[in-house]
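Recap from last week: sequence in, structure out.
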Amino acid sequence: MDSITIKRALLSVSDKTGIVELGQSLAAHGVELVSTGGTAKALRDAGLAVRDIAELTGFPEMMDGRVKTLHPKVHGGLLAVRGNPEHVASMDAHEIGAIDLVVVNLYPFAQTVASGADRETVIENIDIGGPSMVRSAAKNHESVAILTDPADYGVVSGGTTRLADRKRLAMKAFQATAAYDAAISGWFAHVDQGERFPDRVALPMIKQAELRYGENPHQIAALYTQAAGGVNGIAQARQVQGKELSYNNYNDADAALELVSEFRDGPPTVVIVKHANPCGVATGETLIDAYRAAFACDTVSAFGGIIAVNRPLDEATAEAISEIFTEVVAAPDADEAARAVFARKKNLRLLLTGDLPDPARRGRAMKSIAGGFLVQSRDDGIVTRDQLKVVTKRAPTEQELADCLFAWTVAKHVKSNAIVYARGGSTAGIGAGQMNRLESARIAAWKARDAADKAGWAEPRTIGSAVASDAFFPFADGLLAAVEAGATAVIQPGGSIRDADVIAAADEAGLAMVFTGMRHFRH
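Predicted structure tokens:
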């Protein structure tokens, strides 16, 4: 049957947004309203006639409301196939009335977990009756409409439902219960039982937007966020202006934000990213100083790039950024003058993130492969000065040590094989994604020389710099390339069977070198 007139509706919601208005609309079309607890009170307070669920079932609510809708007169009224004579006979024999509409949203489990509630409170917010009614109504969508989202209340405001709408609502209902169960199973596994990699994984995700296309125009794409939330990132940023964000914009902006977040408690810092790799990173006394230093590292790649900063944007920095074409700018905030500057660039996307994410937060990273997924803990490794091991005859100076740690932090976010030269809180040259470390070192040095030529400097910033390698030097050749570029200090994980040869080469060149004992492969 395509069109069905709603004669009886069961309403039981935690989120009462729009429920009174829906009840009024249904009552105006002669629909009998059956409800429970707080929902019934809200409807009665609005002057609506409501039948209690206990009156319908002939059985009182009990056990603090845990048992109220789990009854044959509820589920029989939902699951009965209207055109099946045996089902109709059973309904008549047991005085079960048909229910044509169910309006349910579930106990706020994820919100309760996010609030930091104790275990007992979390368990109490596992809904049982709600999902049961949702599933019963959705299964029997040929005859019953199920509403789980207030945004869909308008579908039934006329007192009737169409089959096409009931099918779509059933799909949404099963998505809602699947996500709900995924959140519960995830909490039990990760929080309650402390399992990092449970036998089964379900990810409750909510679609935020369908994107124009994927990485390439022939691919389709969408943005999803975790239903449980908890992390404030690019997906949660508020877009103030500019064109719709693309798949690549999101990916690059995320890379920029993750890197600049490493400096969230540090001095003003600017990160410029191109194709998910940083092409310039710098700190400074002011944001505009940091931007100019980061831009000077690679003025070619910065064109059409993504910029992230760790301070609210001011007018001067916005003016400097606006001098070239920039795809996206991400910042914790921006003052009115900065926003006015960017408003002149109608295609530039300005994203305001609020607090930056914690670089040390725990989490999981996933990568699809043919036939499955690889899952790992996210790279939350951070190395402090106290953890560094000096392995050369000469120890680094304070400035060299600071440059080493800065270069190391940037290298963590550069695709492997990664080599980063840094001096005075600015990247001098970045070599990314090469098949061997020697070529990365050479490319980074070449880019530094090119930057010096373009800026008219007397020498490249690799002279007197520190160089970071995301993994150990397997041979001394990569290190010697850094020496040739003018580096005076090296930071690397160590751990190669040829460490002694590399250390000897560093000593012969007068370098200071420290080992971190940690690598940062990024593929």
